[in-house]
Specification:
The chain is mostly helical. It is 66% helix and 10% strand. It has 6 helices and 3 strands. α4 crosses α5.
């Protein structure tokens, strides 16, 4: 602890601030990566798209995905841990809702990138989605 105090007194304040900022930036990038990882599975994207319309219980989402309930629950936990969905237990069923509707703008932007790549391959001029324009 004494070494830290001595190091801090010898270290210029701007360098100390830079170290703190670098740690904050790294933590923010890690949090961003968590959200991107949560969206990086076709089943989880299907869940997000289903929750755009309305909230759904786990059983409905299980039927939608065509997988067992434990797999659906695992996908939902990943989305919940990333802050994209929230849940509410009502009786015997847990209902999920989209917590972060701005993810739809991101999905629209991704669709624009996909379209652009296909259009470029076909030689068609590209028109970006309104949300992707600078």
């Amino acid at each position: 602890m004494v070494y830290l105090a001595v190091a801090l007194t010898l270290m210029p304040i701007w360098l100390y601030c830079q170290i703190i900022m670098d740690k904050q930036i790294a933590a923010r990038q890690k949090s961003r990566a968590l959200v991107f990882k949560a969206l990086a599975h076709p089943s989880r994207l299907s869940i997000v798209e289903a929750l755009v319309e309305r909230e759904h219980c786990v059983n409905e989402l299980t039927d939608l995905l065509g997988v067992d309930a434990s797999t659906t629950s695992r996908h939902l936990a990943i989305l919940r841990n990333a802050g994209l969905v929230s849940d509410e237990k009502r009786g015997a069923c847990v209902y999920y809702r989209l917590q972060c509707t701005c993810v739809l703008t991101f999905i629209e932007c991704v669709e624009s990138v996909i379209t652009r790549r296909a259009d470029e391959a076909a030689g068609v001029p590209f028109e970006p989605a309104p949300s992707c324009r600078a």
